[in-house]
């Protein structure tokens, strides 16, 4: 794999002046300061995290041992004697001092139907609902499945579980009844929290109906709490089903927090399923909360008064961290967005930014690519001057898409923070610091505090110690929010993350480190394409294709070839008003990377297979091209199943 990513001169984007001259200044305001703090965090993690844990969290009982255990047995613990409650950290400590501060801004599906909720109100709502759960028998350690639309009650449900020390397992409300059932059974949930219906993009989602279908084969579920989002009536099965609004009326708006051990699980959550069957990972209360509170403060440069707009769903790890736990633990104001980036028009995001004066805006590359396809006129007319930090995560953000985001949304005066991490890492692994890091578009730059990166040779497993390196991204020592296990399957946890390379956490992503020490995520190790001995990453080829002005989306895969070992096939979705020749795209790749990388085949398509969180599922494309459509694998997380047959036909006839 080439180390220089693409054959283009990168414009190094310095820290925007607007951030440097700001008062208050960024929490980390020079690269030297970042390096100093980072080195401290690696050399002396115990002191570094111990200090931050006392500074950023409120403990009921102090911890004595910061870190113990390790990767050999998968017995990592952080703050093991410490006791705390996550909802106390998110709510009470702020509500006591600042009860009228807005904690949540609910931006409903229809632009004029939202509302704001203060810390006092949120604490009351969470306590009332925690008392409801308690009255129905929920106890510390129970796993509660949450399947909710993006209404404030979803956040309330998470926090009410946390208040009781119950473990929430949020399932994204776009999943089918089969996927939901599997997750309820996998977690042995006795309690489910849901809504009668959901609203998204002007459409009704029949949430309760999906729950009822799922529960036909879940005899263990004793109680279903149903929030009434719409006026429609839905089938109700007493005594199993109870109405949220009936129940909360019976309860007092205070509920003492259940004090839990730092290592008690706060939640379980399933990975996106891009590469196979999703894994239900478990996160520990103390370490998780510390990592996300620190992420928000340092990586997104959170300051008092900021309005944090994370446009994802609570059902994903990003939503847990940056809609609920990160902003609220910091005492901030978070946005909860029920709709889509294009409802009622492709200007929706920018109307929200202007209306609520969002300071940090967070979305995923899939949404940026979509809005870029619609064109900048939907962005240009809006007042985005409140924005300071604009954020992307979930997939590689290819340089061209990065430049569009920076220029059109950030207006060249915001810090663009591409952050790389995984559901399992619980928090950010690589990201720039807004006040400190000069950025090369497409690189997630440098590691966060405490993340000790090693690049391993995929064949030998040896660490590559030169500055310039290509290989597998691994992590050498535990950080606070690392997932502690896969629920009910510790052996799978060890086999997936800790056994492949002894002494390291294995991410399964490929990475490059350039001569300046910047890290470049190449895509999944299993997706690396080997053409006549040249190792090529999927993201490298896709970035080249996205440099062409006609390309809206692209996916690259490796296909077996007798001559070259493998050759490159690509799927390209063009912008609607563009018509081009295949040769134009092939030359784009030849010029950007080299002749060996030239795609053997380019399929023009209108859509790509994506997970429900919007990630391209390359494994599906590969199975289709390889003709192995009868062994296509787990498709439960595929958002657009109809695409499979369309692509099979397309490939067959080209
Ligand atoms: P599964 O593990 O079930 O196959 P998944 O890996 O997509 O699904 P997530 O935990 O949601 O599940 O995603 C983490 C992965 O997403 C990373 O391992 C990486 O491949 C990709 N990713 C996330 N953020 C970035 C980013 N900023 N740049 C590049 N890749 C990213
Ligand atoms: Mg993964």
TrEMBL record:
It comes from the Eukaryota. Keywords: ATP-binding, Ligase, Nucleotide-binding. Coiled coil: none annotated. Belongs to the ATP-dependent AMP-binding enzyme family. Pfam families: ACAS_N, AMP-binding, AMP-binding_C. One of its GO terms (molecular function) is AMP binding. NCBIfam families: Ac_CoA_lig_AcsA, PRK00174.1. One of its GO terms (cellular component) is cytosol. It comes from Gigaspora rosea. This is Acetyl-coenzyme A synthetase. The lineage of its organism: Eukaryota, Fungi, Fungi incertae sedis, Mucoromycota, Glomeromycotina.
């Amino acid at each position: 794999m080439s180390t220089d990513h693409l054959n283009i001169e990168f414009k190094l984007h310095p820290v925007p002046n607007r951030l440097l001259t700001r008062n208050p200044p960024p929490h980390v305001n020079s690269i030297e300061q970042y390096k100093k703090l980072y080195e401290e965090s690696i050399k002396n993690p115990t002191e570094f995290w111990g200090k931050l844990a006392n500074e950023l969290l409120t403990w009921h009982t102090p911890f004595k041992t910061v870190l113990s255990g390790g990767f050999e047995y998968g017995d990592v613990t952080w703050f093991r004697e410490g006791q705390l409650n996550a909802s106390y950290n998110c709510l009470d400590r702020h509500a006591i001092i600042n009860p009228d501060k807005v904690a949540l801004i609910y931006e409903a599906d229809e632009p004029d139907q939202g509302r704001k909720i203060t810390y006092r109100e949120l604490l009351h709502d969470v306590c009332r609902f925690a008392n409801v759960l308690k009255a129905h028998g929920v106890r510390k350690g129970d796993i509660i499945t949450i399947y909710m639309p993006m209404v404030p009650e979803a956040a309330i449900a998470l926090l009410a579980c946390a208040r009781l020390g119950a473990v929430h397992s949020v399932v994204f409300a776009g999943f089918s009844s089969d996927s939901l059932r599997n997750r309820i059974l996998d977690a042995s949930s006795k309690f489910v929290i849901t809504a009668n219906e959901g609203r998204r993009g002007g459409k009704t989602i029949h949430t309760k109906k999906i729950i009822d279908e799922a529960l036909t084969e879940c005899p263990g579920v004793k109680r279903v709490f149903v929030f009434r989002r719409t006026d429609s009536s839905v089938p109700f099965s007493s005594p199993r089903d109870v109405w949220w609004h009936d129940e909360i009326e019976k309860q007092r708006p205070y509920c003492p927090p259940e004090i839990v051990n730092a290592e008690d699980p706060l939640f379980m959550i399933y990975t996106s399923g891009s590469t196979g069957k999703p894994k239900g990972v478990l996160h520990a209360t103390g370490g998780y909360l510390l990592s996300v509170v620190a992420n928000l403060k340092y990586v997104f440069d959170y300051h008092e008064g900021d309005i944090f707009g994370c446009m994802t769903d609570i059902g994903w790890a990003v939503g847990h961290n940056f809609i609920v736990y990160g902003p609220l633990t910091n005492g901030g104001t978070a946005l909860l967005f029920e709709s889509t980036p294009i409802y009622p028009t492709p200007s929706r995001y920018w109307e929200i930014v202007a209306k609520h004066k969002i300071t940090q805006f967070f979305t995923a590359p899939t949404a940026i690519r979509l809005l870029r396809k619609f064109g900048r006129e939907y962005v240009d007319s809006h007042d985005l001057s409140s924005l300071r930090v604009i954020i992307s995560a979930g997939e590689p953000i290819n340089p061209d898409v990065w430049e569009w985001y920076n220029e059109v949304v950030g207006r060249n005066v915001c810090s663009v923070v591409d952050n790389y991490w995984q559901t399992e890492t619980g928090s950010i692994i690589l990201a720039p610091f807004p006040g400190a890091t000069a950025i090369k578009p497409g690189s997630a730059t440098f590691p966060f505090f405490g993340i000790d990166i090693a690049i391993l040779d995929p064949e030998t497993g040896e660490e590559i110690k030169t500055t310039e390196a290509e290989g597998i991204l691994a992590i050498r020592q535990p950080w606070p929010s690392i997932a502690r296990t896969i629920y009910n399957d510790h052996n799978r946890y060890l086999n997936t993350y800790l056994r492949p390379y002894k002494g390291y956490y294995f991410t399964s992503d490929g990475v490059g480190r350039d001569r300046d020490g910047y890290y470049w995520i190449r895509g999944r190790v299993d997706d690396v394409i080997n053409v006549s001995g040249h190792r090529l990453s999927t993201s490298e080829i896709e970035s080249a294709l996205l440099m062409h002005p006609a390309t809206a989306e692209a996916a690259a895969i490796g296909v077996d070839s007798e001559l070259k070992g493998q050759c490159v096939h690509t799927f390209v979705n063009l912008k609607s008003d563009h018509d081009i020749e295949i040769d134009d795209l092939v030359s784009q790749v030849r010029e950007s990377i080299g002749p060996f990388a030239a795609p053997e085949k380019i399929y023009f398509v209108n859509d790509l297979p994506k997970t429900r969180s919007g990630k391209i599922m390359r494994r599906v494309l590969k199975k289709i091209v390889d003709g192995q459509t009868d062994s296509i694998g787990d498709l439960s997380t595929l958002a657009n199943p109809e695409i499979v047959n369309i692509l099979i036909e397309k490939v067959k006839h080209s």
